[in-house]
Amino acid sequence: MTLQFLIRLQPSSVARWQTLAPGAPDNTTFTGTYIITQADIDAGTFTNTATANSLEDATDDDSDTQPLAQNSGLTLVKVASPQTYSAASQTINYQFQFTNSGNVTLHAPFTVTDDKDPAASCPGTPTSLAPGESITCTGSYIITQSDVDAGSVTNTASGTAQDPGGQTVTSNDDSETVTAVGTGALVLVKTATPQTYNAVGDVIDYSYLLTNGTNVTLSPPYTITDDKSIDENCPAVPDSLAPGGTVTCTASYTITQGIWMRFRDQRGQRHPRRTRHQDRRRQPVTSIRRFGDGHSSRCGWHADPGENRHPADLWRRR
Fold first, then answer.
1. Sign (positive/negative) of CA torsion 242, 244, 248, 254?
2. CATH number at residue 114
3. Which of 59, 80, 309, 46 is nearest to 199 (CA)?
4. Is the pLDDT of residue 12 over 60?
5. What range does the domain containing 288 cover?
6. How do residues 29-76 score in pLDDT, each as one tens digit?
7. Rounded mean pLDDT, 252-270
8. What is the 3 state secondary structure string of the chain?
9. Of 254, 287, 307, which residue is a domain's last?
10. How far, in Å, are 81, 212, 313 from residue 90 at the CA level?
11. Domain end marker among 216, 231, 254
């Protein structure tokens, strides 16, 4: 009995009718193609079944299963904004971009772990990532004074997703460093007490208020250099000076004979001191000093240790 049958390769739907005598072989080769889908790769295997049919209801099936290589991958790129900071309490924002770098679909939950921001999180959508697709998670960090003092902040993050089999896929670690910008300076305000003197041996006490005008914490030793005093002293405490903090140093100076002011006229004759409103013919010599009578006069400072004169013994150059 001669059979007429249809050989169909599934799922390509290629078919051809043949006539075949009993016991006779059929050496006809049938071909077909199939394009692999993402679902096939996610499944990990591909099975192709061929079925031979005849008009006499004779059938035969043959299947072939091929494994498909699965490579799951999750790549993290972390970005910080801004890239610098200058004070405590400033906020650094982070974006974590996770990209499916494998060949299988990744599924939620997508998570991010950051060693500086335990509250970093990923959005609820999308719930899956095809190969090449990305999702962006976010986080933030508030700068501390310790970070300003250290000069930089480095934090590291990683993330996870689920592969088609429910296994956890972990991304690479990615670190981001933001740097501190130094600002300000150490500010000195010097105060003298008393503001006037009238005899050799008088002591002028100085107070030096040091204020940390920088944005970093300063540490001792605190020092003062004064061109007149030799007993400058700063306390050992506080053991640190935060921005805006202050410390007070002290020193003193003893008046000597060499600082008394002397004035001479052009003829070398000496005249008693005269105020500016008393004699406008007098010409100033060097710097200005205010005398006890409330008037300002320009005067020169001369050292003459060989002569001991009373403070009132002031002479003016004409």
1. positive
2. 2.60.40.740
3. 309
4. no
5. 258-318
6. 777 788 899 999 999 998 988 887 766 666 778 888 989 999 999 999
7. 59
8. CCEEEEEEECCCCEEEEEEECCCCCCCCCCCCCCCCCHHHHHHCEEEEEEEEEECCCCEEEEEEEEECCCCCCEEEEEEEECCEECCCCCEEEEEEEEEECCCCCEEEEEEEEECCCCCCECCCCCCEECCCCEEEEEEEEECCHHHHHHCEEEEEEEEEEECCCCCEEECCCEEEEEEECCCCCEEEEEEEECCCCCCCCCEEEEEEEEEECCCCCECCCCCCCCCCCCCCECCCCCCCECCCCEEEEEEEEECCHHHCECCCCCCCCCCCCCCCCCCCCCCCCCEEEECCCCCEEEECECCCCCCCCCCCCCCCCC
9. 254
10. 11, 19, 63
11. 254
198: number of Cβ within 10 Å? 11
Residues 6+ apart with CB under 8 A from 258: 303, 304, 305
Q: Say how many domains are in the chain.
A: 4
Length of the chain: 318
* CA 285 to chain centroid: 57
Go through 45-84 and write b for each residue having 16 or more CB atoms within 10 A of its CB, e for each that does not. Answer: ebeeebebbbeeeeeeeeeeeeeeebebbbebebebeeee
- Domain identity same for 166 and 151: yes
Q: Both 240 and 310 in a single domain? A: no
Name the β-bridge partners of 299: 287
Handedness of CA 300, 303, 307, 309 (dihedral sign): positive
Q: Are residues 99 and 171 in the same domain?
A: yes
For 187, 211, 239, 293, the CA distances from 184, given in Å and listed in that order, are 9, 11, 20, 42
